[in-house]
UniProtKB/TrEMBL annotation:
Domain of life: Eukaryota
Cross-referenced InterPro entries: AminoTfrase-like_pln_mobile, MAIN-like
Biological source species: Anisodus tanguticus
GO biological process, one term: meristem maintenance
Designated name of the protein: Aminotransferase-like plant mobile domain-containing protein
Pfam families: PMD
Occurrences of domain Aminotransferase-like plant mobile (ranges): 32-232
Amino acid sequence: MASGITDKLKVWWANFDLVSQMTIRRILGCLVSLFDISPDQHLVKTLIWFWDPDRVVFKFRDYEITHTLEEINYFTNLIYQGRGQIIPHNQSGKKFLRYLGLKNTKELRCFENNWVSSDYLYERYGRRDGYKLIKKEFSYTPDHWRVRHPIAFAVDLLGTSLFPLEHGKISTCICSVARTIFEGVDSTQLTLAPMILAEVFQALGKCERGETNFFEGYNLILQMWAMEHFYRHPNMVDILFSESNKIDSFYDRTK
C-alpha cells in the first residue's frame, strides 16, 4: 500500500507558483492535502479482515458499512454529480513519453512494461530548472514544458497515493487519467470519484482473497474514512456541511 506522500513530491508542490497551485487544487480538489496524512498500515490491514467482497461491505457483527460516492466527495471535494466518469485505458510507454514531450530512450526498459518511477518524473518535471538540466531529453519547448508541468505532477500524485503499484511503480495509464481531468473530453469535464471508489473495492477484494499482499488503492483516504465512522462527533451536522477542507481538518476532528 502507499506509504505516504514522498518528500520529493512535497518539494515538487512547493516549486509551483501560487497560480499553478490554485489551478491544481481546482482540478484535484483536496487530494494535495494528503501530504499531511500519515499512513496507518495496521488499520488498513485490520479492515481487510472485515471486508465481504460478495456484498461489497465491511461487516462488523451486527452492522455493515461501505464507501459511497458522497463520501469520496466529502473528503476530496471532487465533483461527481452531472459529470461523466473517467474510464482508464492502457497507454504505451511511447505514448506516455510523447505526451509529456520526452524523447523515447530505449535504455529505459520500464516503458516496455508500461510503468515509470516517481524519481524519473521528478528529475524532469519536479525541479524548477528541470527543463534546463535535461533539455536534450525533451522534444518540446519550455512553454510546452510549463503546460505539462501540472499534469506530470498529477500523474505522480495519483500514481503514488491513489492508484499505487508495488515497488513504487506508476502505471503509464495514469497519464491518460491525469490528462483527461485537466483537459476534459470534447469540452466535457469528467470526474475521478467513481474510479477512486472502484479501485479501492477492487484492492480490498484482491487482498481479502489472498491474491496479493499489496493494497493497490487509496489507503490514506480509506483509513480516514474508517476513523471518521469510528469516531463519535458531538455535532455531525456541523461537520457534514462545513466548507472546510476535510483532509486538512481530519486530525483536529478526530483527536
